[in-house]
Amino acid sequence: MKVLASSLIVVASGQFDGNPFGWDRIRRCDHFQYDPPCGACEGVGGIVWGDDNDDYTPTSCEEVDPATVDKDNLKRPVWAANFHMTSHEILIGRKTDPGCFQAFPENDSSGEHCYKPQEVELYSDLGHGLKRAIYLAANQAGNIGVKGNVSSVIIHQGSNMWITNDIPALGSTVKQTICTQPREGGDTSQAGVQPVQYNWTDNLFYVSRETIGVEYINDWGTQVLDHWAFGPHHAWVDPETGIIVRMWQPFNGLQVLEPGSWEVAPQDPTLFEDLSTDGSTAPVPARKDGPSQFRVKCTDDGFYDPDGGELSVSDLRRARTKMPREEYQGSSFRSMSENLNKWLLAHAPNSRECDAWTVQELQHLQLSLLQLRDASLEEIYQDSSDNRRIRLPADLAKEWAELNAVAAEDVELARMQRDGHCHEAVMWYVHHLPDSLKAEIKDAISLPLLPYERHDTAERSHPVLKVYEEQVSCTSCHAAVFPDDPVTV
Question: Lesser CB count within 10 Å: N end or C end of the chain?
Answer without folding.
Answer: C
